[in-house]
């Protein structure tokens, strides 16, 4: 689960981190009062959406007068913001954050991630902050500093010194990075974070370290432990198809292609996406209906796939282990009776009760292509979608 910048900054403040006080606005009639509450000469108006790259897309504006701030906030609320991370359709801005402008001397990059290779929470930092960190990593890998934290001993002062050296921090700011990271590490562990990114962390003109942006993702599997975090969820920022899927306990991730996939088991779902790509197609989604899917789940999965206007064909790839092929087949047939399936469907069933399953499909008189091998399945659907 992701949260907004203003919520992430509230959390950082709870952990004792120095962040200038800001105001979040949901409605244009709140703007004037909010702006009047600041006594800073420069205000920064920031669109709150669950995507980065706002600065370059017109979602972060620096204003020198309250009147300017007002104009920016009015224009931003309700606007459709397109950034590198939103996709071409963009996202509607439903809340705006206003905070004091900070005098920036240097922008740094700082993040905490879980490194599965070393099984550690790892701090990633760079002197090249404020910009696309993926690009820095690609073009100047030497400018990326990695500091793994041993989970047993936790964050230690030497980690801070290593970061201070790597980031070439001015003398005054040197202690700051250690205490900042100590607090961030505690937040990461206590709230079960999956990722925390501060880009930029800035050195101000008086050598203070201040996070100007904050992005946090939580580990969904641990959310049940944190009702305070669950309360921060903004469903309007999530893909409606993914919300529907989570209600039926389906593992669904929306993707950019046009071949809908319905598969049981995450590994088989990955393999299915791979083989579609190998044969020149693009999957529209990852969907794992789970090991013990019911007819209702299969129906729900079909509905979700078909609700995606980009889908031009569907590939059903089921291996019947615990799951029985006849149950899947019946689910498909029932789904087809309930809604109009307007795209070609290729079904590959193998395993438990496969003959029964095929029989149900054949007798249904539905316009389905049944195939036996995974390669046939992929080439058939890729050709059907192209045709
Ligand atoms: P995004 O990453 O979505 O583009 P940021 O919050 O990182 O949004 O803002 C983009 C840039 O705007 C920052 O790199 C920084 O240069 C500037 N900026 C953001 N907030 C402030 C602020 N409070 N004071 C001064 N400059 C800011
Ligand atoms: Mg940023």
Keyword list:
alpha+beta, 387 residues, binds adenosine-5'-diphosphate, Rossmann fold, 4-stranded antiparallel sheet, 36% helix, Dna Ligase, domain 1, 6-stranded antiparallel sheet, binds magnesium ion, 3 domains, D-amino Acid Aminotransferase, Chain A, domain 1, 25% strand
Helices and strands in order:
Elements: H1 5-14, E1 23-25, H2 31-36, E2 43-47, H3 54-57, E3 60-63, H4 66-76, E4 80-81, E5 91-92, E6 96-100, E7 104-115, E8 120-126, H5 133-139, E9 144-149, H6 157-166, H7 174-190, E10 193-204, E11 209-211, E12 215-218, H8 227-230, H9 240-247, E13 251-254, E14 259-263, H10 266-278, E15 285-288, H11 295-306, E16 313-320, H12 325-338, E17 345-351, H13 354-363, E18 368-371, H14 374-386
Parallel strand pairs: 14-16, 16-17, 17-18
Antiparallel strand pairs: 1-6, 2-3, 2-6, 4-5, 7-8, 7-10, 8-9, 10-11, 10-12, 13-15
Helix pairs in contact: 6-7, 9-11, 11-12, 12-13
The chain binds adenosine-5'-diphosphate (ADP) and magnesium ion.
Pfam families: ATP-grasp_2, Ligase_CoA
Binding site for Mg(2+): 199, 213
Catalytic activity: succinate + ATP + CoA = succinyl-CoA + ADP + phosphate; GTP + succinate + CoA = succinyl-CoA + GDP + phosphate; (S)-malate + ATP + CoA = (S)-malyl-CoA + ADP + phosphate
């Amino acid at each position: 689960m992701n949260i907004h910048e203003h919520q992430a900054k509230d959390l950082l403040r709870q952990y004792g981190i120095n962040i200038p006080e800001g105001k979040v606005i949901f409605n244009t009639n709140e703007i004037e009062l909010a702006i009047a509450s600041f006594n800073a000469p420069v205000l920064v108006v920031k669109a709150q959406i669950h995507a980065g790259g706002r600065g370059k897309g017109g979602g972060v504006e620096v204003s020198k007068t309250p009147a300017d701030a007002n104009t920016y906030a009015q224009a931003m609320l309700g606007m459709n913001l397109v950034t590198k991370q939103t996709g071409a359709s963009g996202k509607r801005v439903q809340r705006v954050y206003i905070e004091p402008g900070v005098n920036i001397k240097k922008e740094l990059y700082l993040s905490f991630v879980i490194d599965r290779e070393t099984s550690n929470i790892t701090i990633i930092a760079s002197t090249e902050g404020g910009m696309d960190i993926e690009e820095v990593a690609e073009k100047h890998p030497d400018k990326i500093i990695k500091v793994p934290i041993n989970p047993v001993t936790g964050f230690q002062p030497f980690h801070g010194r290593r970061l201070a050296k790597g980031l070439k921090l001015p003398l005054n700011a040197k202690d700051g990075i250690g205490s900042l990271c100590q607090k961030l590490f505690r937040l990461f562990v206590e709230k079960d974070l999956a990722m925390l990114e501060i880009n930029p962390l800035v050195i101000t003109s008086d050598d203070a370290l201040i996070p100007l942006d904050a992005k946090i993702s939580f580990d969904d599997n641990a959310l049940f432990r944190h009702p305070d975090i669950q309360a921060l969820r903004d469903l309007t920022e999530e893909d409606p198809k993914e919300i529907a899927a989570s209600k039926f306990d389906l593992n669904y991730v929306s993707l950019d292609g046009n071949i809908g996939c319905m598969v049981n088991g995450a590994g088989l779902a990955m393999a299915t996406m791979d083989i579609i790509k190998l044969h020149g197609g693009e999957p529209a989604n990852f969907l794992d209906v789970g090991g013990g899917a019911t007819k209702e789940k299969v129906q729900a999965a079909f509905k979700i796939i078909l609700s995606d206007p980009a889908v031009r064909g569907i590939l059903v790839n089921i291996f019947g282990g615990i799951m029985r092929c006849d149950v899947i087949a019946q689910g498909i047939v029932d789904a087809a009776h309930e809604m109009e399936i307007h795209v070609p469907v290729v079904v590959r069933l193998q395993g438990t009760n496969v003959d029964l399953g095929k029989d149900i499909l054949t007798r249904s008189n539905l316009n389905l292509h049944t195939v036996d091998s995974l390669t046939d399945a992929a080439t058939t659907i890729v050709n059907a979608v192209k045709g």
